[in-house]
Task: structure prediction
Amino acid sequence: MPFICKACLRIAVMIGIVPLVLMPACGNDWPQWMGGPQNNGSWSEEGVLTNFPASGLVAKWRTPIGPGYSGPSVANGAVFVMDFQKFDPSNTSERVLCLDAGNGKTRWQHTYPCKYVGVGYDSGPRVTPAVAAGKVYTLGTMGDLICLDAADGKVLWQKNLVSEYQSKVPTWGFSTQPLAEGSRLYAVIGGQNHAVVAFDAATGKELWRALSSREPGYSAPIIRTINGKCQLVVRHADGLAGLTPETGEVLWSAAFPTKVGMAICTPAVFEDRICISGQWEGTAMFRILPTKKDASLQWSHDAGITPEKTFRTEGFNSAMSTVLFDGSQVYGVSLHGELCGLDAATGRRIWTSLALTGEAVPKDKWFTAFLVPHDKEWFVFTEKGDLQIARFSAARYEVLAKTHLCDPDMPVGSRKVIWSHPAFANRCIFVRRNSELVAFSLAASGSATP
Result:
């Protein structure tokens, strides 16, 4: 499934094996948001399960951690994650943890004072650490951007986006994933003329700033090749754009304003088309034309924000869940757990399934699932702690195998959820609950996990 052009890839070669010295991430790693060797949300390892044992999967290890939404990243034998430490109302901190991927034991930790002010869902940091070239980059809820030595946790550089750029803390805190790519670190921070900023990854020096937006939103920037040009694709609270990675030159842009700044879903790119979705706005498809600065809207459909008593005929409204686009079909999870397949040419709803929720009717608002392509199948992890191996097609969603990994423990309204993207690496899945990080082996029989 060609989600990304190979011309954009930078494949690192790891020379030597030193357990605590982290070299550039290898193909089996999940080093940042959207993970995988192509940074496209897919998992490419071989020798993994095609079915689950009847007794379920046994945890390889469990490590207690503090609360938060930060997903884990995995690089060269280490797992990185963030949490929140609350000793009393006046003594609170955010923490970056580095664990051994093989046994879950702590290698190092970095803690810094952080008090949450005016942030909804104030249980902890949101951002998945980004690991590249022996460094780990983290962004805290209140705008603390920090670069650490991945081997020992030493602070290499840091800055606060609020004080440095006079950025306002978003309603749900800074949640946009920083993207480490080559010699640069990209961050979406919002504001006038600096909605997107590129930093020197080694020193933190600002390289360029571009665009304006009333706030950053919560969507991760990605690198893709469109119309033969490698570009940084960003989505903010007011729309989306493509930028030249080296200079920040705006190649194209499109308006797609969101209520309460809830631009969350990462853009799904296939060749010259981009699909995005929002809670109130529905799903939209844009085409990028090489001769125009404005992206062309192909279609846009709003499926509404109430549970679908009768399934809609067009679009879906995804608040947070992954959107997948393979060129012919678009797949995504609508607001109350309705898993949908759309015709990519028209946005027409082809099928709807409630296989993720296990309910007879749509019910839970903001139901979330993470869809991870693997070869011809998908690994799908839900907010209920269930893992499915499935197949998406124009005809239906077919569940091939399913198991329950762990119970959710993050309170949201009247239910508990897991809203952190898992990492798939080393033939394992690494799941972050509110109280612990858990590793399960997904290695097929005869395929040893590293």
Remarks:
- The chain has one helix and 34 strands.
